[in-house]
Each structure stands twice: as structure tokens, then as C-alpha cells.
Amino acid sequence: MVPVQRITTIDHGQEWVSGIVAKNPFIRDILNDELSVWKPNSALPLAVALAQAKSVRRAPESDLFDVALQILKEWYAGLATESVTLEYGQKQFNEHLATLRERSVLQDRRFRSVLLESWLIGYERTKSPEEWSSLLFSAAIKRIRIPDSLQKGSEDQGGQAKVFRTVSGDRSLAYRVTLLEGAESRKRFAETSELLEILRERMKEGGEGSQYLFRLDEIGLSALNDNEAVQVYRWIDGFDLGQKLGQIPSSFVVDLGIKLAKAINFLHTSNILHRDIRPNNIILKEESAEPVVIDFGFARRMNQDSHTSLASEYSAPEVRCDRPTWTRGADIYSLGAT
Question: Is residue 57 located within the same domain as residue 162?
Fold first, then answer.
């Protein structure tokens, strides 16, 4: 490293030394995850919060971490809407703190570089609201690493979503990867993520009908790409009901309807509307022919306003119009139409 004597200016995180740019010109690069472009690490919001806690709120060193965590919670509270709440808890704090220490941003409770600390203090103010919100979103959501070797799933859906299959121990898992394009798709993913986490916890308690719903293991963002949402769930060997229309005996239809009604009732008692019940979203297990309801991409909580209109032949009339009305009845209609 070339020794330097004086730094005259800092411009967007770039150190200019006596009129010459240093070999590693950007002080921000210690928090960058790419070589050629600016892709901030998800620990950056914590670094900004620590800098503000120290210099703006004048927190004593002993209280620095507590004040920084409070600042982060205030930022996330500002992003909350009626339907979405992004949380930043102690687990994320500890993970990101470890990253800052690994990258030598911090030593104990102090920044190793005064210049980096100064740049961090003003970072939030230099970003557009959308950029800053996107960074906070990335920091709060769980990261999922997709295995290097994956077998392409036979239910690959094409378009923006792709499904891969892998085996982990004695379990067969599906990785569903969806491209997030823009703020609206990120918002929808945050809503789905929060809802599926609620459903997963509810299913741990068991209950009649829960056995006929797909089993989610994890949901989050790709560890390699902020613009990819990942769901990890139990792979189901079988075929969708749409492939068997007109081929099922009436006695089996009655049994199938009872089981699916229990599944929908479980969702409704969990305050969840599926909103896309149709044959292609019901898998019949290969060995037992037991039904499993899948694809919760349109699912929402009952008390959540929604203006999404669906024109599927299985959709209730009241949700095909310009001002749809989503209630339990819409799911029940779709089940009957299926």
C-alpha cells in the first residue's frame, strides 16, 4: 500500500490524496460485495446506524450498540404499512456486527477509519428514498444460499419463477426462485414472506387440515442476488389435479373435497385467504393420492385490503370485477368450482 500524508477531499466515498487517487480509491469498498460495481453489503445499514449513534446522538461507547439498534428499529418502523412490517432484531444485529468486525470496519466499539465513519454519517441523506428502502429491505430479510448442484424440477414454471429440486439428508426439497422487479414486487414479496412465516408457525401447532398444506422450510432473498426471492419447501412427488380432470371417480371426489375443505378452513382460522384455489394448485401425492394445496403467491391476510382482480374461471364473480371483494366466500367458491 502506498503511504499517504494528506487527504484533501472526500467525494462520494472517494479519497483524493494530494490530488492523486489512491490505489484502492473508495473507502466504501470495504462494505462492497462486488469488484466492478457498487453493491453494498447488507451490514451497511448497521454501520450507518452506528455512525449516527456515535456522532449525531452522542451515545456513550457503552451504549453505542443499544442506540444503534434503536435507530434501526425507527427506520424500519418508518417503512411499515398496514400490511407489511419489516423487522430488524438482535439476530440480524449480531450477524451484521460480525460482518463489520470481519471486514475490519470496527475494532471493539470504534470505527477503524475516521474517514469511513464520516462518510457513513451522511450516507442515508445522499440516497433516494427508494434506494435507502431497498437497502433496509435487504438487510432485514433472511438470506438463503442455493446449493451449487440442483436437479431441475419437473414442475419448472417458466417465466419469472423457476423451481429446482435437491436432496438434503433424508428430505427432498424444492427451491422456488422468483425475480423481484422494482419496489412493487419487493413489497408483495415482503407481504408473502410475513404471511408464510405466520402460517409456518401456525402449522407447527398442528390442527385438522394442516396436513393438506405445503410445508415451507425457509423464505428469504438469495444470498447471491438481492433481486431473487427464494422459497424452500418440501418436494411433493405427484401430479397436479388439473392433469386428472374428468378421470376421478365420484367417491374419490367426495373424499378429496372434504380434505380440501379442511385445508381451507385451517387457513381461514389462521386469518389467511389463499385466493388462488384451482386444480393446478392442488398436488395429489403419488403414493397416497392425498391432496396438498400449494402456491401461496396471491395469499393475503383477511384484514388486509386488496385491489387485486383475478379473472380465472375458478374465481368468484365478486373478485373478477374492477373493485374486487375478498372474503372467505371467494376461497370457498373457488374450491367448489375446482
Answer: no
pLDDT digits (tens, 9 = 90+) for 253-281: 899 999 999 999 999 999 999 999 999 99
Using an 8 Å Cβ cutoff, are 144 and 221 in contact? yes
Residue 57, phi then psi, degrees to nearest 5: -95, 0
Q: Concatenated DSSP letters for 9-46? A: EEETTEEEETTEEEEEEEGGGGGBS-SSS--B-TTHHH
Residue tagged 470496519 (cell numbers) = 105
CA dihedral 22, 23, 28, 34 (to 10 degrees): 160
pLDDT at 48 over 50: yes
Same domain flag for 37 and 164: no
Beta strands in 212-280 (DSSP E): 216-222, 228-234, 238-240, 272-273
pLDDT of residue 301: 87
Q: Where are the beta strands (DSSP E) in the chain?
A: 7-11, 14-17, 20-26, 106-107, 110-111, 143-144, 151-152, 161-168, 171-179, 216-222, 228-234, 238-240, 272-273, 282-285, 291-293, 300-301
Residues 6+ apart with CB under 8 A from 209: 259, 262, 263, 264, 265, 266, 267
CATH number, domain with residue 307: 1.10.510.10
Write out the H or E segment, with its range, that includes residue 153. none
Q: What is the pLDDT of residues 118-142, one digit of tens each?
A: 999 989 888 888 889 889 988 888 7
CA-CA-CA-CA dihedral for 175, 181, 184, 187, to nearest 10: 30
Q: How far is CA 142 from CA 86, 87, 190, 194, 265, in A?
A: 11, 11, 11, 11, 29
Q: Could you tell me which of 142, 61, 45 has the C-alpha nearest to residue 97?
A: 45
What is the domain range of residue 156?
A: 144-337
